Amino acid sequence: MFLLGKQLLSLMAGTAGSPKYIHQLRRVHGLSDKEREVLEAVEKKFAFRSNEYYLSLIDWEDPDDPIRRIVVPTPEELEHWGTLDASEEIDYTIAPGLQHKYDQTAVLLLSDQCGGFCRFCFRKRLFMEKSREVVLDISSDVAYIREHPEITNVLLTGGDPLFISTKKLTGVIGTLREIDHVRIIRIGSKIPAYNPYRIINDPALLDMIRTYSTAERRIYVMTQFNHPREITSVAREGLDLLQKAGAILANQTPIIRGINDDPAVLAELLRELSFIGVPPYYIFQCRPTLGNHHFAVPVEEAYRIIEEAKKNCSGLAKRPAFVMSHKTGKIAIVGLDDEYVYFRYHQAADYDSIGKFMVYRRNPKALWFDHYQDPVREMKVTYC
Fold first, then answer.
1. CA-to-CA distance for 41 and 136, rounded, in angstroms?
2. What does the DSSP assignment read for 328-376?
3. Strand, helix or coil at 221?
4. How do residues 240-250 score in pLDDT, each as one tens digit?
5. Do the Cβ atoms of 376 and 361 come closer than 8 Å?
């Protein structure tokens, strides 16, 4: 059953209104002893983290509860499928903590922790490997960004940048704001869904956004709401505070089996996000990351689900591009017919490939771009 209202407030008593983090399955009260025993091997391989607030959203009487599926391990994660670096980010890593794949965008990995560990996370390697990709001293990374004027966007990610202290985050953003050509700073975060109290209880965070999100240089908070039940009244309060402080909000989510692969559920998510001013930005194909096979929806099925969901959305809610974050770029799935599937490079590591249109024969079992055979046709976009 759900723990809401007074029950949840009671759980958080003594923590100044902030939910307690839970790092071990044995402390998750909704699980039976037998379930904990079954999941022991999964927990040893793939770390677990959540908190009292987020766990309170789970209906423990429903074994297929979508919120449970987001954050609680399952034995299927031990299936040997996929790799730990499905998009081969290592090839675009300039220095520890810094990636530069697309001309205009640099990525800074500031944290190897999150408000919760999504079971389908494509960077779960950060939570399980001794070699760390995040960096504490970003001075060399900032120097690289300063020396590359084509970089107009910097994405702060990890892990979750809102899991680190506001003081440290303010230092990073203040430093980036000293670089004239960096016009947009993006904060990629699931904290608004996992722990909105992080926003509500920290006036300094909101002050920082007021200071550095200006009329000419905005801070974007890229949220990750995967299911409409995550959009609680508390989450809406946190989002509203971010908006009033000057942040621009947008949402991105993968399409995940058992969570949002129902057109009615996905439509509800997209619609609700549009109602509260958090426009949908990307819907991602689930990456072939180790342990993620049971989450993956075939590409063509996912396309049909998304298009069916959009039928029940206004234009503001049906804007997200459906893309695969492939090692070569963001590949948009733009259409199907009885024989072919149509792709386009929405973004590409090779600048000349941006916009390239590709036609492949249908493969209903394909879970990733690499599962398609040779293209029937490729067309480079030309401009007059």
1. 31
2. TEEEEEEEE-SSEEEEEEEEESSGGGTT-EEEEE--TT--SGGGS-S-S
3. strand
4. 999 999 999 99
5. yes
CA distance 185 to 73: 33
Q: Where do the DSSP E strands lie in 34-137?
A: 50-51, 93-95, 98-102, 105-111
Of 276, 256, 286, nearest to 317 by C-alpha is 276
Going by C-alpha positions, the residue among 11, 25, 19 that lies closest to residue 54 is 19
**Dihedral of the alpha carbons of 270, 272, 277, 281, in degrees to the nearest 10:** -10
Give whole-number Cα distances, 289 to 89, 101, 281, in Å.
Answer: 12, 19, 22
Tens of pLDDT along 188-228? 999 999 999 999 999 999 999 999 999 999 999 999 999 99
**Residue 166 clears pLDDT 50, i.e. is over it:** yes
Is pTM beyond 0.85 here? yes
Q: What is the dihedral of CA 69, 328, 351, 248, to 10 degrees?
A: 10
Looking only at Cα atoms, what is the longest distance across the chain? 67
Residue 202: name the closest of 190, 191, 186 by CA: 191
Residue type (1 letter), 381: V
Half-sphere exposure of 221 (CA within 13 A, CB side): 32
Sign of the dihedral defined by the CA atoms of residues 109, 114, 120, 124, in that order: positive
CA distance 89 to 284: 16
- The dihedral built from the CA positions of residue 154, 252, 249 and 233, taken in this order, carries a sign that is negative
Per DSSP, the chain holds a count of helices (H) and strands (E) of: 12, 15
Closest CA to 205 of 181, 241, 230: 241
pLDDT-derived band at 127, boundaries 50, 70, 90: confident
